[in-house]
Amino acid sequence: xxxxxxxxxxxxxxxxxxxxxxxxxxxxxxxxxxxxxxxxxxxxxxxxxxxxxxxxxxxxxxxxxxxxxxxxxxxxxxxxxxxxxxxxxxxxxxxxxxxxxxxxxxxxxxxxxxxxxxxxxxxxxxxxxxxxxxxxxxxxxxxxxxxxxxxxxxxxxxxxxxxxxxxxxxxxxxxxxxxxxxxxxxxxxxxxxxxxxxxxxxxxxxxxxxxxxxxxxxxxxxxxxxxxxxxxxxxxxxxxxxxxxxxxxxxxxxxxxxxxxxxxxxxxxxxxxxxxxxxxxxxxxxxxxxxxxxx
Length: 295
Known about the structure:
Oligomer: single chain
Number of strands: 16
Helix content: 25-40%
Radius of gyration: 19 Å
Strand content: 25-35%
Number of helices: 10
Low-confidence stretches: none
Order of helices and strands: EHHEHEHEHHEEEHHHEEEEHEEEEE
Structural class: alpha+beta
Largest sheet: 6 strands, antiparallel
Shape: globular
Mean pLDDT: 88
């Protein structure tokens, strides 16, 4: 009989975390045996809980919440010698990792999928301030995300970030940025740097269609121009997976990239504040086994 930990953010999903927790506990008990249920109350609780589960050699850690909660749990598992399987029940607004894994956005369906979900190797990213499982954003969007309220996310979903990004574009000129990798270097002005691990970024599931869960690569995008004509070209490309074909975007893949700027620029990691430049980002190939629904 195995033991798993269920980490629940009760404030996620319109305060429905506790309600869904009972159903999740029942499913996990049937599959594994023992279920250790923990509710977060403050920042970094999920990290501490996940570290404890790893130290106790638990079979799996299941995180229920938004991408921020999932990021905290991943951070708690990343440095452990024994890393339990990692499962998710999305309760957030964007739920990029769920989209990338094929986990249903509906919590009840996601709980049902845990009955048969199978461990699959997944890359995670590392940088000086922590870890990320999905995306790093530097520049315009990173600043805009901090301005999006809970009410706006609830009302508009992923489009809340796009709306705030358009507002920010009107107020900002491009940033001086240095991006250094073995495969590509850039020193100049750009509005945004995105470093993606999965196909889904900001709720756009075709942002990086070539990304796979365990390809061992960081997918880097530089948005150098964001004028009106560029926006017209970029908008449909976000949905069709053709960002690489647009004139205002430069992209490349790497295993390690250093980003710097003479300006004090914030970094957004998986939707939350992740510090400021300069920072070096690297991929940890197949570092976690994530519970992926059976097709």
